[in-house]
Amino acid sequence: MEIGVYTGYSLLSTALALPSDGKVLALDITREYYDMGLPMIKKAGMTHKIDFREGPALLFLDKLLQDENNKGTFDFVFVDADKNNYLNYHERVIDLVKVGGLIGYDNTLWSGSVALSPNAPMTKIVKGLRGHVIEVNKYLAQDLRIEICQLTIGDGITLCRRIS
């Protein structure tokens, strides 16, 4: 599953890595972002592996969780949506991903701002969401249901392996 499609780059990468019968559920608030990457997805022959759903991801996740059969069925979830909802996403996807499965959170270094003083110069958007990113990093570090590894690739990716 991918929450937050944007240009479709990571979505296409995931689809390419899947076996021929693999599927990725892609969630985004707007189809515009999915359509942006669709030409490359088509060119790569990966449209059959992607199930795109438009709308608020939290509502969709809540609907998935209403059916007990969905719990523990996802191998991998990648979250790159609204940073202020990362904790809300985590509390839902932790039940959807199987034990031994992975959850990836993008932008967990947030332009390096997580290591800066709150008074350091930063753009308005970075400053506005910095607290949410710090909060999710702290929460993931103490969540006993997962083991984590933060990668300093790009803007930071935190990988969480569900252990219980």
Automatic annotation (TrEMBL):
The keyword Aminoacyl-tRNA synthetase does not apply. GO terms for molecular function: O-methyltransferase activity; S-adenosylmethionine-dependent methyltransferase activity. The keyword S-adenosyl-L-methionine applies. Transmembrane segments: none annotated. It comes from the Eukaryota. One of its GO terms (biological process) is methylation. Keywords: Methyltransferase, S-adenosyl-L-methionine, Transferase. Pfam families: Methyltransf_3. Methylates caffeoyl-CoA to feruloyl-CoA and 5-hydroxyferuloyl-CoA to sinapoyl-CoA. Plays a role in the synthesis of feruloylated polysaccharides. Involved in the reinforcement of the plant cell wall. Also involved in the responding to wounding or pathogen challenge by the increased formation of cell wall-bound ferulic acid polymers. Belongs to the class I-like SAM-binding methyltransferase superfamily. Cation-dependent O-methyltransferase family. This is Caffeoyl-CoA O-methyltransferase. It comes from Trifolium subterraneum.
